[in-house]
Structure formats: C-alpha cells, structure tokens
Amino acid sequence: MKQLRSAMRIVGIYILALLIAGPVLAQGSGTVTGTVTDAQTGDPLPGANVYLQGTNAGSATDQNGRYRILNAPPGSYTLICSYIGYQQASQSITLQSGETVQANFALQSKAVTGEEQVVVVGYGTQKKRDLTGSVSKLDGAGINEIPTPRVDQALQGKISGVQVTPESGKPGSQPVIRIRGIGTLNNASPLFVVDGLLTDDISFLNPQNIESVEVLKDASATAIYGSRGANGVIIITTKKGIRNQKPIFNFTAYRGWNQIMHPIDLTNAQEYATLANELADNEGFPEPFDDPQSVGTGTDWQQVVYRAAPTQNYNISARGGSESIAYDLSVNFTKETGIIRKSDYQRVSARLNNDYYLTDHVTVGHNLSWNYIIDKSAPSVVTMAYHADPTIAPRNAQGNFSNANVRSSAGNPEAAIFYHRNDNFGYRGVGNFFGQVDFLKKFMFKSSFNVDLSQSQTKNFLPIYTVSPTQQNTQSALSVDKLRQQNWLWENTLRFRDTLNVQRFEVLAGVTAQQYTQEAFGGRRVNMIGQDKSLWYLNAGDTEGQSNSNSAYSWSMLSYLARLNYALMDRYLLTATIRADGSSRFGADNRFGYFPSFALGWRLSEEPFLRDNPFISNLKLRGSWGIMGNDKISPYPGRPIVTGNLNAVFGPDESLNYGGSLTALANPDVRWEEAAQSNLGLEIGLLNDRITGEIDLYRKETRDILVEVPIPAYIGVNSPPFVNAASVRNTGIDFQANYSSRWGNLKYNLGVLGSTVHNEVLNLGRGKEEILGGGLPNQISFTTKTMVGHPIGAFFGYKTDGIFQNQQEIDAGPTRGGEHPGDIRYVDVNKDGVITADDRTFIGSPIPDFTYGINLGASFKGFDLSASFNGQVGNKIFNGKRTLRFNIENWEQQTMNRWHGEGTSTTEPRVTTSGNNWLPSDRFLQDGSFFKLRNIQIGYTLPIHFTTKFNMTKLRVYLNGTNLFVNTPYTGYTPEIAGQSIIANGIDLGAYPISTTYSFGVQATF
Amino acid sequence: MRYIRVLINRLSLTAGISVLAALMLWGCKEPKFLEQPPLGQMTSDNFFQNADQAIWATNATYNQLRNWSVHVFAWLGMTDIASDDARKGSTPTDASFLLQLDDFSFDPGNIAFSTTWQGYFQGIYRANLAIENIPGIDMDSQLKARLIGENKFLRAYFYFFLVRAYGGVPLITQPLRPSEYIQARAPADSVYALIERDLQDAADVLPLKSEYASSNLGRATRGAAQGLLAKVYLFEGKYQDAYDQAQNVMTSMEYSLLDNYDKIFTREGENSSGSIFEVQATSLETGEGGTQYNQVQGVRGPTNLGWGFNDPTTNLETAFEPGDPRQEATILYVWEPIPGGEAVLDNTNINGEMYNQKSFIPRDQFLAGFNDGPGNIRRLRYSDILLMAAEAAYHLGNTGEAQSLVNQVRARARNGRAATLGITAEDLADTLKSALHMPNVPGVLARRVNANGPAAGLVQPFRWHWKAPPPAGGITVLDSIDIIQSVNGSDVTTRAEYLDAVNTVGAGGTATLDILRAVQTVNAQDSVVTSTQNVQENVTAADLLPDVTATGQALLDAIWHERRVELAMEQQRFFDLRREGRAADLLAGYQSPKNDLYPIPLSEIDLTGGVLEQNPDYGTGAAKGLLRLVQ
After folding, report:
1. Looking at residues B394-406, what average pLDDT do you find?
2. CB B210 within 8 A of CB B223
3. Contact indicator for A104, A81 with CB cutoff of 8 Å
C-alpha cells in the first residue's frame, strides 16, 4: 500500500511538474509547524493543506493532523490552511532564519445552509437565496449514490418535476426524461448543458466527474436558453481542480452483477399444452397435444435468455493545484454486461480539467474529456422468449437448435442470440477552453469555446443459418455504418456587478454562435466469404448487389442574450432575461426569435417582522413568467428540397433516366414552438434550516407546435408541410422537502419530493381532429388517440364488461356479431344497441398523475446508510405484448383463469387467436402505478487511525443494491415503460427488462 | 507591476467590448452563418438552373406515370373493374373497395377516388413546376420547347383522366401558394379547353417519333399529342376535329399495325410499330424502374406471386367472335402454359379464375421483386386511332371510310387467315360434355389453347377443369384433356398448323377432328385413374372475322364492338361506355345520371370546407369542414 501511495505521489508530482512552469527555488531556513483540527469536535484533520501564500512552500497534515513546512525563506507571510468541506483559515506569521513557528488551526466545517448554496444557472452562478426561478440542484455525491455508467439514469427520483424512465434495461441506454410534462408533439427531451456545451447526448460523461447537476424548470431559469429551453434545461458541471491544494488521490471501484428484476409468470409446458388444445377446439383445428400432462414443465425460455451479468467500474483521479494552476485529472473504466447475452457497454474515459490563474485578473482553462465506448446492442429476444413454445427444448438430442416454430411463430430465442452478430464502437472528445478577465473591479469578460467531435461505427453481420423454415437466413450480409458528428459553440459574455447602498445588481450580456454537422456513411454487401469477425469488412462480400449511402446535415445558431439581477435590501429580488436566437432551421422571415422572462422574489424572512423569528429561518415567495422555444425539428423544414430518384425509363435498352423535382412542399414560415410558462414558488426553511421545503405551481402552455395539417390533395404534394398549429397545456405542482438532524452520534436526513402533471391538448390545427398512434404489430389498429381536450397519447379502445357466459347473454346483446360464449362483452358506449368502432372511447392515460421520490440517509460513527425510493401513481400501461399472437404463442399465467365453460371466468375470455377478444380494449390496459426501492447502500468508513497506517485519509467500503424491489399491479418486467414517441407512449411491446443490481464497492482517498 | 495590471485591465475592457461588438456586427451583417444549405441535396435555390435540371424535372413528371395511385390498383378499379370487361378478382374479401366499384355501391369515402385524385394531381403538380420554371432557364431553345411540350402533354393526360372520372375539377396550372390552397371546381368545359390547348401546344413543338434520338424512345411525340387530342375531341363529340387529328397521325406514316396481335403485349412488343404512347417500365436488379401494374393483375399463387385482381369476365370472353385470336391474347386461363414451361396453377380460393394476359409478365422477368414489374402500360395504340377515325367518319357521314378503317383492324386480327371452326369454349364444352355424358353443371371453365405445345406428342390440348362437388359414391370425373391430333387427316402439331389447316378447309367446309381424350377419374376407392380414348368430331368451318359491311346504327355498333375486343382489358372500356351513353344499359348497378361521374373524394370536400362541391346524388358531406374553415 505504501508503494502504491508513493507511486501515486510520484505520478502526481510528475503531472504537477508538467503543468507548473518554473519551479521556485527554496533558499530557506525557517520552519512552520502545527496541528489542524475540527473546530467542533477537536478531531485532528489529516490531509489538510497548509501553505505560505505567494510561495510554493507548503505541506499537508499527517494522520495526527500535524504539518511541518521546512526550508521556508524568512519573511512575513499569510499562512493559509484549507481542507475540503471546511472553511479556509489564515494567520499572519513572521519567520526568522533558523526559527520554528508554531501555528495551529481549528477549522470550521463548511456546512453550507440551503440559502448560502451556490447554484449554477445559465451563463453564471447565483446564490440560492437570490434565485427567483425554479432550479433544483443535485450534487456529485447524490449522482454517485447509484452505480450506473450514465448521469441521466442517476437522476431518477431525485428531483421534483423531473420524470426519468428507462426506455430499456440495456446497459448504457438513454432514459426518457420529461421535465414538467410533455409540452410538444415532437421531441420533448430537455436540453443538456455540460460545462457550457449545449448538447442532446451526455453518454460521454462519467458520473464520478460530476460536481453538480442543476435542473432549470421555470421560464425565469430556462428562458436564457431561448429557443431550446421549452423542455427544461439540465446543467451539468464537472469537477474542477482546487488551488493551493496538495494532490488528493481518489480511487473508487465497484463490482457487482445484474439480474432480471421481475420475470413474468408464464404458463409452463403442461399449462401451455392444455390451453393450446382448448384454443384448437375453439378455433376448429385439430388438437396439437394428445396428452398435455405428458409434456412436463418444459422450457422456461426466460431462464434461457436472461443471465446474471457482471458489472464493474474503476476510477482514479488526482485533484489539487498550486497558486497558479488547479487541476482535476481522472481516468475511468466501466463495463456493464447486459442480462441478455451479447449486449454490453464498455467505456474508457479520461478527463483533464485545468484552470490557469495567469494574473489576479486573468484566468484561462480547459475541461477536456475523451472517451471510447463499445456498445453492443442486444438481440431482440425479449418478446420471442415471452412467446416461445415452452414444450420445446432449446436444442435437440443432436445438439442442434430445435425448431420452435412447430406451433408458435416466435422461433427459438437461444438460436436468435447465437446468430446475433453485432459490433459497435465510437469515440468522442469534448473540450471546453475558456479565458476570463476581471477588470475595473466590476467587470468580467469571459470567452468560452466548446468543441465536441465524435465518430462511431456499427457493424451488423447476418450469418447463414437454418433453425426452421421461418427462422432462417440464406444469404449472409454485412452492413457497416459510420457516423461523424461535429459540434462547436463559442460563447462570449460580459458581466457587470455593482452594489449601491442597499441595492445589488448584476447585468450579463453575451453573444454565442454554434454549428453542428452530422455525416453518415454506410455500405452493405451480401454473400460474405466467411463468418469470422476478421471478415466483417465490406471487401469480403460480393460487389453485385452492394449498396451504399452517404448523407449529412448541419445547423447553426447565433444568439444574443442578456440578464439583469437586482436585489433591494436583500429582500426584493428581480430577474429579467432575454435571448434572441437566430437559427438556420427556420425560414429567412422567421430567422430570429425573442424569448423574454421576468421574475420577482420576496424574501419574507428578511423582513423585520420575521428576521428574528426563531422558528422560521427562511421564507421566500417567488413568481416568474416567460417564453421559451423548442427548436427540435428537422434541420431544413423551411426549404423545398429536391426529391431525387424520380426516374423515368426511356430508350430501346430501357435505361433509367434520373429525375427529380421539388415535389415536397416546404413551409417557409415554419418557426420554433413556443412555450409560455408561469410559475409561483415558495421556499421555506425552519429551525435553522433543519427543515427545508420548496413548492412550485406551474402552468406551461405550448403554442405553435409543429404538426402536419392536412391540405387538399389537389395541391399536388405528397405530404403536407409542417405548420405551427397545435397547442398543449401542462399544469402541475412540484414540491420537495428535506429534514436533517442528529441525535448523538446518529446523523440522519429525510427528503421527499413529488410532482403532479395535468396534460391537455388544446388544439391540433385546422383540419386536424386527432392523431392516431400506437399501432400494434398484429394490426389490431391503433391504441392511442391524441385529441383536443384529452392528454397527449391517451389510450383509446373498447371498454369491456365481463364475459358472455352463454348464448342467452349473447342474444340479449349488445354484440359485434359472431360472438361465442366465453367471449368478451364490450360496453355499448353510444347506446345504439350494437358494438361498432364508434363504441371505442378514451380508456386511460400513460401520463402519471403523481410521481414521487423518497430519499433517506443516516450515519452513525463509521457506518452510513442511504436509501432512495421512487414511484408514480395513476398511469396506465397497454400490455401490448399480450396482444401479439398469430399462432399458439405462450401465455401469461393469468390466462389460466380463462373462461372454459359457463361460470368459469368473468375476466379472462376463452382462448382464441384473433377476432372479438383481441380488439384494443381495457382488457390489455393495466395500472402502471408503482413504488420502487431504487437504491440502498450500506457503507462503513474505516477508523482514521487504522487507515492512516496505510497512508490513506479515507477508506470506505459499501454494499449496494439497485432496483431491489418494486411493488406494482403491473404484470410485465417493469412498470417503467417509456418510448421516445410522444403520441404512442406507455405501450409495452417487450422492452429489454430493467435489472436488479447488487454491487460491492470501495472508495479510497490518499 | 501595477502599471502592467492597469494596462491589462484597460486592454481587456477594450478587447472584451470590441469582441462583443464585433460578434454582434458579424451576427447582423453575416446572416450567411445562419444559411446552412442542405448537404447532398438540391433545393429550390439551386434547382431549375440548367438544361440537365430541366430534363430531370421532366423525367419526374413521367415518373409519376408509374405510380401506384396513377396506373395501378384504384385506377384499374375505376376503369376495367367498373366496366363489363372485368371483375374485381382475387379472393372474395380482398380489397372490398374495388368490389364497390364493380357493382356501383361505392360512396365518396371509397379510397379509390382519393387515391387516383391525389396521384393525378401530383402528376399535374410536377408538370406545373416544370412548365413554370423551365422557361426561365438559359438553355437550348429547341430542347426547352420540347421539354415544356412534354410536360404539357402529360398535364393534359392527367387532366383528361380527371375530367372523365370526376367532371369539372380545380384547374391548377401553376404551383399554388398557401393563399390559393382553397380552390373551387372549374367547369368541365374549362378543363377540356386546357387539355385541348396543352395538346395543341405539345403537337406544335414535339418531334415525330422518328425525329427523336433512340435513347429518348418512350417520350411523348407529336403523334402521341395528336392521337390523344383525337380522343379528347371524340369525348367532346367534336367529330371533325377528332377525325382531323386521327388523320394527322395516320398521314404521318410513323405508325403501322403490327401483324401479330398477340405479340403486342409481350415485352418484345413494347414500343412496336403500332404503339403511340406507353408508360415505360423496366425491371432492374436495383429496382426503381418498374410498376405494380403487372403484380396486381398477375396470377395469384406461386405462378408469379401476383395478386390476381382485374379478372376478365365471361361477358368479355363471349364478346369475342368465334375464333377471334384476340380472345386468346387477352385472357389467360388456368392451366394455360406460360413461357418458361410452367402452367397457370389453379387457385382454389378464387372462383372462375381468368387473368388479364395483356398485363402478364413471366416470373423470371421480375429482377427486383414482384412489385417492380417491367411491363410497359399501353396507353394509346394505332388501332385505337383507326377506330376513333372510323367512329368520327361514321358521325361525319363517311360510311365507306368508316367501314374501311374498322376492317383494317379486323384484317390485322385475322392475320392472313379467313376461316374458323367456330369453336368457342362454350361450343366445345357442350360437345365434350355430351360426349362424356357429363351433367351440365354450372361453373365449367373455358377452353385454353397452348400456342407452343406442352410436351412431346401432345398438340393443341383443350383442357377442362370441372369444379363440382363429387356425387355421393360412384365415379367422379376430375379433369379431361382433349388433344386435337389432326384436321381432315392432316396432322397438326402447333397452333399455327391447326389454324392453317382450319383455314384450308375454308368457310362452309366440314372438318373432321381426331381427338385424343385423356380423362382423370376418382373411383370409389378414392384413387385417381387416368384413361385415354380417341374421339372424332365433325365441325363446320365459318368465316373468321368477316369484313364489316353494315351501315347506319349497325355500323356504329360494329365499330363499338371492335373497340371492345381490340382494346379489351386496356382500361378503355368504362369511359367508352359512358361516352357512348350505354353504361346504364350494360353495367349492372350503374345509375344514370348519378354514376355518369364518380364522386369527389370526401376528404377533399372536408378540407376545403365545402368550397369544392360534390357531384350530384352523392350527398354534400361538407358540414364539418366548413365549420373548421371559419375558425
């Protein structure tokens, strides 16, 4: 361990030597010694930094809190002591040659109260107490509580008003994030700002590099991002170095395993055979099984497909700085394997965040990160395993894959995994370079240049195989696709800050320019000469039948922004922002959009009548209004593009003559969608901020949502252009509250948060009454309908009313015609005596009424415990995978409760494959409410006197469990069903299941 | 040191403000930064700039001719299936909207109307784009005029379908601006006026067929413009104009009737001497050159994985005069051998299977999938010109010329022969059935003739397929095949030899046919037994397609009859019947005047808020849309 520590020191010194220009010569004879302790407890603080200001002479405290600075030149100094988590302290000393000066420090813990907290807002920072907008903050520790390779996944249940739903349980997959509901019919994902870079993709971020995550929710906070703020903004700040800090080495590692969280209770082989025979009787074909009891329990395909999959993560970082340089370096390796074989996610990332303090007024710096990602996609076997025939073994007696298509059309999942060949990797470099000049005391100019370059490649190899007549491939093929992205952003801001008696104000103005380019290149060949990965190159295939593609697009933005923050007597706060965004996406007439916001705050707790109140420590009322935009539309919506390949055939040899024309209509007036949001918030702190709370009421109305409004066909274009026509309203409440206290050595805290959303479509544009969505693969028409007066993507179908028990009940009607006893009775909604398509009605919404999170933390001496829960109430899930059946597919256990004779069931119809019972109805609609133990962690920090023997300042080990249990009435793998599609959400078609993760980790600081 | 700091501060204030100011100025003065031209794509900014692009835009108009909505499914329904030539075909429940066209039970919501309406107006939009933008291009003036002429021809072609199908429609002669999106219907006369003007303009500038470079084979010619104009005039009842335009085509000496009628509809017969305008299609391995015209009418089942729609009716089958070789070239029967040595297999899901042989393409000629059919769609043939001229001449009182023109068409159909045994399918059926003592049950299929001879020793089979429920017990005849082996003692081994031998007999003579009859039976033990026997039949020969000598109404009837059999299954019949005023008499379910026009698609009326008015007797259906327009 000692060698390791020495080695790390050497690495640190080496890096320092690289970074620090011109080492200072020590020509000294004085010595400074002393101890550093915690002012409250008197405990010695090992690893604290003590140095003479303006020199490089300094030292760190040892395990007993003692330090010794040798060979300091004589003179008068300010001696500085700093330590993470404590307030910096200083003493003046005079050092004589040959003398030893004693200087002790008792440091005050930097337990920042809520309102002194600094919050990152757009283009700057603000003290929490000065905020007039709705901004929620989560610090790096909160992010790292959950072992996941993705920052966005760690946000679940941590911030009110933010709904994070995994779209897939595949490692490394991007979750769907919605901030304050769904405000558009198009892309509703928030904007990410990473160290100033505006982006949609944060897969490159290593959670351990995160200093803080701020979520901007209301208009006052997001309007500074103008045409990109309407879906909310998530600002992510990475860790920076610390000036005058000896290197702190951090090593963290965890290992664990993933396993399927909640397998579905499917029928076993005997039950399957029983139902299959019953199905055959009902449908009028011969029974497939002579004796259903003889087939045994058969194959549980879920056990075949899902595995316990290891996960691991290692991170090493060095953080510190000198007077003129602060640095934070880290390297991370993470590898998470998927619970479905052949899917995994690996990432190597490195980060170098440096600040160079060139003079007292000039600082330059950079935040650089580079990473390499291998992301292997999963074979699509989830629905296959759900439907596969349980009477078939994966392999036959000869060891070959069995034909599982004898009765079912699902196929053999084991074979599907075996023949899945996929290779995907990419690298990405994200860099931020900035320079900052303070001048004339009140001004600060900052110029920041961000660049984001990435390249990725996907290879899909399709081998030749034959499992069954319907599960085979006769021609091998390889497709290779490359994607290159390039994104740069240059921001220049000027800030003026001043105080005039009881008035404080800050003015910010800036100009930013951004350009993004994406280029895709792909090729495909068939009849590959072999299957080996060394042959996964296009040259190994036939040139005949090859195809290629190459496409690109780009967009640019030019923006001007300004913000005024004004505070009167620290009580009355005003924020006004405006941003003008010029975007290449929009027509020349609409090139610029203007996005203003205004907000007022009143800190009642600063008023004389409350200032000395012992109970209320903070009380603030704030309100805001503003307009933001959503520009997430195609890059060239306003410009007619020539449709190519409208070829004609001419000549005796019938050759193809290129044709093309402006057949697609563009809308030159197309513009961003606009969301007007008002917000009313109350912040409260009680008992010296031991209890804090925040509640926000909001109303967000999005207008000018882009929809394709139908136009008469005689105009002659293939499809109508997008026009700004629809509008949607979201209203709701966000709240969060925290309580923290201690009882002897037991410290604990409790946080709760929740939000409600009420979503309503106000208008869909002239001529458009509804948008249908959610078509299922078995073509039983659509399942959702977006219509004025209802939530976006509301479920639409028949209501069921039990089961027809006998012919008399059928005769009494109402019926669709052709029903048999045992079939579903539908509700005659329009009371016309028959069941027709007109009886379909709204049957539920995929949007939850209420989402919540509960976070607990406690520590006792060396032990600590944290647990977080999250959940939602009131949403429905359309269990789409139950409906997809063409043949005798396997069933969920509930089908055993089917009707098979009068009085046998009033809920589950008789077994059939199609027709009456399979219409989209509330039969497939299930309650999607859930309560989940998102994460629990028990840690133990070894006693300091023990760890210092190994030259460590901290050593903590922990056990962690993620997604340990979920309580839900939903019968699928998970009630967290999400899709990027706005109008067809909450439909479970068999997404990659979410896994439970158990892990063990260690954190060491040297 | 202090001095340096002050300097730096001053400098940075200056620098900061100037950078901000410079950026703002740059932003204002350089909106080019916000101009991101689409990459790898042409836009309105750089299109219609040169001759190549003018050609591309023109090709794009031709491209629409191959579109699904223009010449495929719904269109076949509105032309052939609605007529007495064809029925829906395919399985009974497949594409029921076409069944509604067959029996005239459709309403304005039928998707056939919205499909063709959209497809033809999209073609008009492409033509309008070209007609509006090509004049401004700096290019060879002759080529420019030709390209504009081609687009005008195509625009007229698109409008001609619309005006015949729907009557007056919105008359759109340039791409509409958003403020012009709501259009009312123009009177049918105005639409016809535009069509006439466009076709006259096209005829003035388009080259003759022979004047085009061969690589341009398939483009609209002067002959095509004149021929189509003749048809337009015929539909307007302008007989002198129709006659004159037909004469222009005939006197151009660019076209002649191809000797073998049955070669016209093979791929070798594409763009043959009698072809005036065809939708050009081909099959390439990469796709993109074909149409679905062949697929939707193709033989359903493994034969060529067609969909089996637009089946000829027995009404059409019996319309052919005895021995007319065009019957054989028009109708494809079950068990009929097809090139490649296969036969059309019986599909038990379809009753009374017959297929449109004129659209049939053998399976091996689809290179990129069956939805990419290579067959050209014949839209205007020289025989049509002759028959239009005959009809115009009749109306102008030139009986002799009318007879002579129609007889040219009949002579080509005879192709050098004069006599026939007069054996049609039904005649032979009765003969065979009585010879075999078969019960005379309905559902007996017709004869099919093998042109090439299927197997060694077997010639001229007449194949029967009997689809009746087997009687309880006893022997059931499944199939019998008659093979004519000689005519009056002279052996016949090919279809040509057979026809020649019949021709030698001469009209009025008697021919003795030696027939080898193979019979397949199922005995009581359920095993299939095949036996053969020799049969002799005596049949009297008759004149084959004798010249028309009738006058008066009988002459007009003869011309109309000739149009039907000559142009059968070429999507002419329905509009001809409407023009002739006979639709209500001949088509079951057709109500006049209601069905004299198809209804305007309901969605269009809704979207214009009722500004677009519905045709009589189809309801209004406008209320919902009108309210929305007012909003």
Report:
1. 97
2. no
3. no
Q: Phi/psi at A332 (nearest 5 deg)?
A: -135, 140
DSSP designation for A290: S
Can you name the residues that pair with B343 across neighbouring β-strands? B337
Q: Which residue has the higher pLDDT, A18 or B598?
A: B598
Share of chain A above pLDDT 70, in %: 95
d(CA A566, CA A193): 25
CA distance B27 to B61: 42
Q: Please name the residue ranges forming H helices in A357-398.
A: 382-387
Describe the crossing of helices B552-566 and B399-414 by its angle, rounded to 10 degrees.
Answer: 30
Residue A555's closest chain B neighbor by CA?
A: B36
Q: Per the CB < 8 Å rule, is B125 touching A715?
A: yes
Pick from A661, A723, A766, A769 the residue to mutate for testing the B interface (most B CBs within 10 Å): A661
Amino acid present at B450? N
Do the Cβ atoms of A839 and A816 come closer than 8 Å? Answer: no
Chain B residue with minimum CA distance to A546: B286
Structure tokens at A602: 């009143």
- Return d(Cα A415, Cα A788) in angstroms, integer: 47
pLDDT at A237: 93
B225 SS3 class: helix
- The pLDDT of residue A588 is 72
Q: For residue B4, count CB atoms less than 10 angstroms from its CB and return exposed for 0-12, middle for 13-18, buried for 19 or more.
A: exposed
* Confidence band for B451, pLDDT divided at 50, 70 and 90: very low
| Chain B nearest C-alpha distance from A96 (Å) | 27
Q: Which amino acid is at A225?
A: Y
- Asked if the Cβ–Cβ distance from A639 to B183 is below 8 Å, we say no
Q: What is the pTM of this model?
A: 0.77
- For residue B466, pLDDT over 60 is answered with no
Give residue B469's pLDDT.
36
The answer to whether the CB atoms of A714 and B63 lie below 8 A apart is no
Cα–Cα distance for residue pair B390/B400, rounded to 1 Å = 9
Q: Give residue B322's pLDDT.
A: 79
pLDDT tens for residues A890-927?
999 989 999 998 889 998 999 887 677 888 889 999 99
pLDDT digits (tens, 9 = 90+) for A788-817: 888 888 999 899 999 999 999 988 888 887
Does position A452 have pLDDT exceeding 90, yes or no? yes
Distances (CA, A) of A610 to A117, A131, A581, A601, A604: 21, 20, 43, 16, 7
- Quick check: B444 pLDDT over 50? no
- List the one residue out of A451, A493, A436 whose CA is nearest residue B23: A493
Give the residue-averaged pLDDT of B556-567.
Answer: 97
Instruction: Give the chain B residue nearest A496 (alpha carbons).
Output: B13
Question: Comparing C-alpha atoms, which of A819, A577, A630 is closest to residue A229?
Answer: A630
Cβ-Cβ contacts under 8 Å between A and B: the total is 237
> b/e for B27-64, b at 16 or more Cβ within 10 A?
beeeeebbebebeebbeeeebbeeeebbbbbbbbbbbb
Query: At residue A473, does pLDDT exceed 90?
Result: no
> Which tops the pLDDT comparison, B621 or A854?
A854
Tokens matching residue A506: 């800050």
Q: What is the mean pLDDT of residues A94-114?
A: 77
- Residue A661 is nearest to which of B5, B17, B60, comparing CB atoms? B60
Name residues whose C-beta falls within 8 Å of residue A645's C-beta, 6 or more positions apart in sequence. A658, A659, A660, B288
- Inspect the interface and report whether the beta carbons of B17 and A494 lie closer than 8 Å: yes
Cβ proximity of A377 and A439 under 8 Å: no
Q: Would you call B5 and A715 a contact, using CB atoms and an 8 Å cutoff? A: no
Region of A225 (left: φ > 0; alpha: ψ -120 to 50; beta: rest) is alpha
pLDDT of amino acid B442: 31
